[in-house]
Amino acid sequence: MTDPETPMDAAVPTSERIESLIDRLTLEEKIDLIHGGIDPDGLATGYVPPVERLGIPALSMVDGPMGVRDVTATAFPASIALASAWDTDLAYEQGEALGREVLGAGHDVLLAPGFNIVRVPQCGRTFEYYSEDPHLSSRLATETVEGVQDAGAIATAKHYVANNQEQDRHAVSAEVSERALREIYLPAFEAAVEEADVGSVMAAYNQINGTYATEHEWLLSDVLKDEWDFDGYVVSDWWATTDGVAAANAGLDVDMPGVPLHEWHVEGSPVHDLIGTLPDSFPKGTLAKLAASPWLPEGANPNLFEESVFGESLREAVERGKVPETTIDGKVRRVFGQMERFGIFDDDQPDGALDAPEHHDLARRVAERGAVLLRNEEATLPLSEDLDSIAVIGPNAETAKIGGGGSSEVTPAASIGPLSGIRERVDGGTTVEFARGVERIEDPHDAEGGILDLGVSASDGPGLNDDGEVPEIGDAVAAARRVDVTVVVVQDDATESEDRSLWLPGDQDELVARVADVADRTVVVCNTGGPIRMPWAGDVEAIVETWYPGQEDGHVTASVLFGDVDPGGRLPVTFGRRIDDYPAATEERYPGVGLQAEYGEGVFVGYRHFDAENVKPEYPFGHGLSYTDFEYTDVSVKSGDSPEATVEVTVENVGEREGRDVVQVYVGPEDPATPRPPKELAAFESVALEAGGQTTVELEIESRAFAYYDEDDGAWTVPDGEYTIFVGRSARNVLAEASVTVSETTPLE
Ligand code: GLC
Questions:
Q1: How far apart are CA 603 and CA 601, in angstroms?
Q2: Can you name the CATH fold of 21-259+324-341?
Q3: Alpha helices in 40-133, H assignment, sequence order
Q4: How many C-alpha atoms does 592 have within 13 Å on its Cβ side?
Q5: Distance 89 CA to ligand 1 centre (A)
Q6: Cα of 497 to ligand 1 centre, how many Å?
Q7: What is the pLDDT of residues 43-63, one digit of tens each?
Q8: How far apart are CA 686 and CA 709, in angstroms?
Q9: Mean pLDDT, all residues of the chain
Q10: Which helix H or strand E contains 629, and what residues bound it?
C-alpha cells in the first residue's frame, strides 16, 4: 500500500491510478466527491471540491446551451436556431466553440446540450431544445456533444428524460409508454451515449411513470448504464434529488449543486445577501425557506434549503448498510473516469478561448443559417439596395434578442439589435425610421436576481420612445404610411421554469395588424422561442422566424432581409393554426391533472400527429422558403443491408442567385398492422448551390427508420411489408416517392 499521504503519482497507469485513489480515499472523502460544494470563485454552476491530500483536482461545471453563464462570453443563438439549420457539421462547430469557451472560462464541464423533445409548443424551454423529431434531435445532439468534447470539455446530455414542460416541472409525472420513450424521448440520449460517448447525463426534475428521474433505476441503470453501456456519470438537475438512498441505489452518481439554495451564489438577491450575513448559529435554512416560500413552485424539492442528500445522511446510510460502499466507489469511479479521460487529473486540458472573435462570427453564421423564411409574397424579400425609406417598428426592435430566461442566460460583451443592424446595413443610403409602437416587452433574459429576490425582477418600465413619450401604435402606423417597406420586429418572453403562451405578449398582434393595414409592404421578423399564433399571417407580405439570434441579432436580421445570405432554415417544430390542433390539447395530456401528464398521444408527437389526423398546420415541420428555387431530379432508392436503403437525389438551383436547401427523407409503412405515423424523418442534408448549380446527395437510411418498438417483445421490430420513401422539402411538401419492400422480420438490437 503506497503511503496514503503521498500525492497521487501521475505516472501510474490510468485505471490503476483510479483504483489506487479509491483505495486511499476515506468514506467521507468519497461522499464529498459525489455532491457539489461551494466554488470559492463563485462562478461555477456546479463544483466538486478538490481532495488536496491526494492531489485530486476540483471539477467545475457551468451552464449552458447558448454560452458560458455568469461571465462575459459569446452569446450564441438559441438551440432551436441551430436546429433550424438542419446541419450536423454546423452543430459540431457550435459544440466545439462552446467547449472552447467553457475551458477558456476555467471550467471543465458544460451543462449542455439540452435536447428534450418539443412535445408541446408551450414548453418554456423550447428555445433551449432542438425539435419535435427524434431523428433530427439525435443527429444534432451527437454532433454537438462530439464538438464540445473534442474541444476538451465534458458535455452533459440533458434533461434525462421526458422533461417536456416547465409547468410543475419539479413534480409532474410523465405518464408515458415504453414505446413512446423508446421511439420519441430516448433516441437522442441513446445517440449521445452510444455514438458520441457523452461524459455525463443530467437526470431531470420530473417523474416518469411515478418515479423521479433521479431515482429511476430502469432509466438510470438498466437502460442508460447497462443497455447503452454508459460509462460516464449521472448528475442530478439542481436540487432535483429528493431521496438520497433511493437515488444512490438507482444509479444517480452526483447530487448537484450539493449545497442549500441560500448558500448558493444567487446573484443580486437582497434576501440571499441578508441571510449570508447572519451568524452561523442562525437557522438560515428555515429563514430562507420562509422568505422564498411565496415563490416556490408546487412540488418543489423539500431539501432545497437542507444539506445535500448525498452528504452526511448518505454517509450514515452507508454505515448502516443501506447503501453498499462499493456503490459509492462506483460513483467515484465514474467521475474519476471522466476527469482522467479529459486530462483534468493531469492538468492537461486545452486552454480554450472565452468570448473569442471567431466565436462571434460563428454565432452570426449559426443564427443566419437558422433563419426560416416562412412567407414571402411578391418576392418582397430580399429588400432592394435602393429603397428610399424603411420603418423599423417593434417594442424591443432596438435591442438584440440574446436569449430566453433562466439558466441558459449569457452576457455578451456587446450586442446589436435589429434597428442598428438595419441602419448599419443601409449605410446612410436609405432613411430608417423607428417606432416602438407598443410598450416594451419585459425580457426575462435581462431580469435581475434569482429565486430569493422576493419575486421582484428588474425592468426598464414601459420603455419610453426616444422622445420620452409612452409609445403609441399611432406613431408606428404613421411611420408605416410614410415609408417603402415596414419591418415589424416582434418577440416573446420565454423562460425556464414557466411555460410559454403561443400568443405574442403585449399588444404586438394589434401592432402588426394596424401597421399591415396601411403599409405598402410589411415584413414581420419573429424573435420567438418556439411556435406562435399569427392571426396576421395572411395580411403581411413576408415573415421571417429568427428565434433568439444571440448577440449578433442585428447583423443577422439585416443580412437575411437584404439577401446577403439566403435564409436556409427549415422548421424543426410544427407551427399549428390553433392550440387544439396539437396532439397534447387536453388538460390531462398537458399540463396534466394532479401532477400527472398523460402522454396519451404516444408516438404521435408533432408532425406525426398532424399527418395521422390530417390536420393542416400553419407552417409544417421542415418548412422554409429560399430566395432562389430548387428542383429535385433523378430520385432513386436502392435497398440494402446496412444501411437499409440509400436515396440519391439530384438538386438543382434553378433560380437567379445562390441559396440553400434541405433535402428531407421520410419513411412510412404502407399498411401497418400496428398504429404508426404516416411518415417519420429518416435522413436529411443541407446543400448550398450557386445559381444554376447542381449536386447529387446520397442519403443513407438505417434499419431503425423502418422499425417500431414492440413492447410485448421488448425489441425493435421491422415488420415485413412495403414502405414508402418520401423525398421532399418539408413534411407537407413531398416531391418524390418510392416504395421499398422489407422481407425479413429480424429483431433489431
Ligand atoms: C437548472 C436547469 C438545468 C441547469 C441547472 C444548473 O434548473 O434545469 O438545465 O443546467 O439547473 O443551472
A1: 6
A2: TIM Barrel (3.20.20)
A3: 79-84, 88-104
A4: 22
A5: 27
A6: 10
A7: 999 999 999 999 999 999 999
A8: 29
A9: 93
A10: none
pLDDT of residue 102: 98
What would the pLDDT profile of 406-457 be if each residue is shown by its tens digit?
999 999 999 999 999 999 999 778 999 999 999 999 998 876 655 554 433 3
Architecture field, domain 357-573: 3-Layer(aba) Sandwich (3.40)
CATH top-level class of 628-748? mainly beta
The answer to whether residue 463 scores a pLDDT higher than 60 is no
What distance in angstroms lies between residue 78's CA and the mean position of ligand 1's atoms? 16
Which ligand 1 atom is at minimum distance from the Cα of 111?
Answer: 10
Q: How far apart are CA 605 and CA 615, in angstroms?
A: 13
Q: Could you write out the DSSP letters of every residue in 11-24?
A: TS-HHHHHHHHHHH
Nearest-angstrom CA–CA distance, 592 and 709: 25
Reported as a single tens digit per residue, the pLDDT across 371-407 is 999 999 999 999 998 899 999 999 999 999 999 999 9
Residues lining ligand 1, Cβ inside 6 A: 45, 63, 111, 114, 158, 237-238, 407
Residue 8 has pLDDT above 50, yes or no: no
Cis peptide before 259 (omega within 30 of 0): no
Alpha-carbon distance of 199 to 113, in angstroms, equals 12
Distance of CA 169 to the CA centre of its chain: 16
Give the pLDDT confidence of 60-116 residue by residue, as tens digits.
999 999 999 999 999 999 999 999 999 999 999 999 999 999 999 999 999 999 999
Domain residues of the chain, as ranges? 21-259+324-341, 260-306, 357-573, 628-748
Report residue 297's pLDDT band, with 50, 70 and 90 as the boundaries.
confident
Q: What is the 3-state secondary structure (H, E, C) of 157-213?
A: EEEECCCCCCCCCCCCEEECCHHHHHHHHCHHHHHHHHCCCCCEEEECCCEECCEEH
Q: What is the pTM of this model?
A: 0.95
Told to judge if 237 belongs to the known catalytic residues of this protein, a careful annotator would answer yes
Q: For 483-490, what is the mean pLDDT?
A: 98
